[in-house]
Amino acid sequence: MTSLALTVRETLRYRGAIGQWSWVLHRLTGVGVVLFLALHVIDTSWAVFYPDLYVKAIAAYQSPLFTIGEFGLVFAVVYHAFNGIRIAIFDWKPELWRHQAQAAVAVLVLTLLVLAPVFLGMLSHVIDFYFTEAAIAGDKMLDVVVFSIIEQLPFIAGFVGVLAAAIVLAAVYSLISGAGPASAPKASPVERFWWSFMRVSGILILPLVFGHLALMHVVQGVFDITAAQTVAGTMASNGSIGVVPSAVEFVYHRWSYAAGGVFFWRVYDLFLLVLVTLHGFNGLRYVLTDYTSFSPFARRTAVALCTVTAAVLLAVGAAALFVPLEKDIIDEAMAATAEIYELRGEELPAALEAFLDQDL
């Protein structure tokens, strides 16, 4: 379906088979994960380059608006992963496609079975934060939601900038190549490579992504990043977080952890960054070029957009991973943490006040 309007219309009209819905859901979850990936890579880099912004970004994620989105994200990742395995198996053994309907049902069932305990674990963190700890005063809830929206506006400006760059690149390419009317993409060696890459990388990503989800959303969820005294996946020798935990110090301890002389989590996150970015934005390229086949300029713009965005994310993410971590980023984070306490209507901990007074 090369028209977006046609896809939506026919998807709503389609009856009697699960294959169409699996196809639609796979695309929707894939696009959702890619959009979150762009957001996540940039805001995590702030922990190194702009500590105060990272503290505020995590505070935004700890709002009701993003709490709901976190559950949607985990569903998208798990379903997309399992359905991707289904697709890879059938591509490897085409004779099995006659069982695709049963396999699609099995993917849904498996997704729900995995998500049941995962969502319960995540829900326990939510209940502790909002109800047991009452971390956000009731009369401040709307302020926090508005704050969380405003904090994401720079990402919108960044996306517009990348889109403009992609359009310029596409226009320059069109002038140089003198490309003619749109034509069906050829099965070139490059395209065959990317087809194989999507299947292989999809399998390689699974343990990395599931491990990351388990640690960062279940064992220590987004609410623990600003409360935990230790970092999951590190040893006691790595040291403990200060008396007033901050999101920046959490990242500092995680990326400073070394085992056998290797900064384990930096290497882990680097592999995750490269594989997920290339897999995700190549998948987005497939989606966008499907819906821009009517125009060679629009198709080239879509390809340029995916290429430029992926290159930017790889550069920013790798820079954050390899830049030496300085302790003074924690000092900057503490001032931003005080702002968050005030925004939420919480009283500043005595230890935080003492820390800030010491810096004056």
- Average pLDDT taken over every residue: 83
* Total separate domains: 1
β-strand number: 0
Q: Helix count, per DSSP?
A: 13
Q: Looking at the structure, what is the overall shape?
A: globular
Largest sheet, strands/sense/barrel = none
Q: Kindly report how far apart the N and C termini lie.
A: 62 Å
pLDDT < 50 stretches: none
List SSEs in N-to-C order.
Answer: HHHHHHHHHHHHH
Beta-strand share of residues = under 5%
| Radius of gyration, whole Å | 22 Å
Structural class: mainly alpha
Percent range for helical residues? over 70%
Q: How would you describe what is shown here?
A:
- By secondary structure, the chain is mainly α.
- The protein has one domain (16-359).
- The chain contains 13 helices and no strands.
- Helix 3 (51-61) runs parallel beside helix 12, helix 5 (100-132) packs parallel to helix 8 and helix 10 (264-290) packs antiparallel against helix 11.
- It is globular, with a radius of gyration of 22 Å.
- The model has no long low-confidence stretch (mean pLDDT 83).
